[in-house]
Amino acid sequence: MKGSVIALGHIKGREVAALLRDGVLQDLALEAEGLAPGCLLRGTVGRPVKGMGGVFVDLPDGERGFLKQPKGLAPGQSILVQVAGTAEPGKATPLTLRLLFKSRYAIVTPGSPGLNVSRAIRDTETRAELEALAATGMAGAGDDIGLILRSACDAADIDEITDDIVEMRALAEAVLADVSGAPELLVDAPGPHELAWRDWGDVDEVDTSDEALDHSGALDQIEALAQPLVLLEGGASMVIEATRALIAVDVNTGNDTSPAAGLKASLAAARDLPRQLRLRGLGGIVVVDLAPCPKRDRHVVEQALGKAFRADPGEVNLAGWTPLGNFELTRKRDRVPLAAWLSA
Fold first, then answer.
1. Is there a contact between 104 and 152 (Cβ–Cβ < 8 Å)?
2. What is the pLDDT of residue 1?
3. CA distance to 112, 121, 310, per residue, from 129 (Å)
4. pTM of this prediction?
């Protein structure tokens, strides 16, 4: 299958959206239970947690969130927060005070003033037109609220962009004015089908048929992700296993025992690792035991990892090599772990 396809369907009665390019699964959105990343809520500040640099926040329905490094907050105070990631089992939901009101074309950013156009839009005339549109749409909004026009604006109708700006600005202003009161869910996170339309941009085809996941090949690839083994080019492989403390990745050369096999396997793993972590919904500390290769070649592997993760939408920090020769990185937990979702 050539080109880009979004397949919308259901697994076990729950919404799933899959993005494929040339038949290869690139991204996955799963329907989550409870407070999903992106939810906007009113919460009540609880007690500070010494040694953890944050405070607990009381949320609707008895849920509890955790806010890192807050400033100027007092216990009992009502605040607006957004769910920043998925909660680990037995832990509080991660929250942020940085609110984003996001649509297909626009992102309204309270607390981050300025009018910006996506750098992916390079045509000078188009940028100038969008900058003028942003200025008009946000006129009178105040000095502490900003707007980002997304890359999807490049091929969009002006009226559609205008409507999006108006809608997101109105929603932001309504939520910001609703800070007082008991904990409450103010804006729910988008479901997988809505998120695919909002964030995955223009594609060659959107398949909404009853067998969309099966016809596109997404279903088989999703089922394969339930296994730790990943086959790589050249007969190499890697095994990705999640523990309570970290994600362990072991890279193997396979039957190739040539001197260059270790570097080839490590480069193949580096290129595919961001996609594998993204699709499996894995985050936290990641320790990669790369295939054996000379120390002089480590910079080549590190460059490949850096390039691969720059294209990944997740927040990643490449920590570097450990004394034992492993490579460490952290990736934000920004989605439901696939293995837990499939077993639910």
1. yes
2. 67
3. 22, 11, 29
4. 0.92
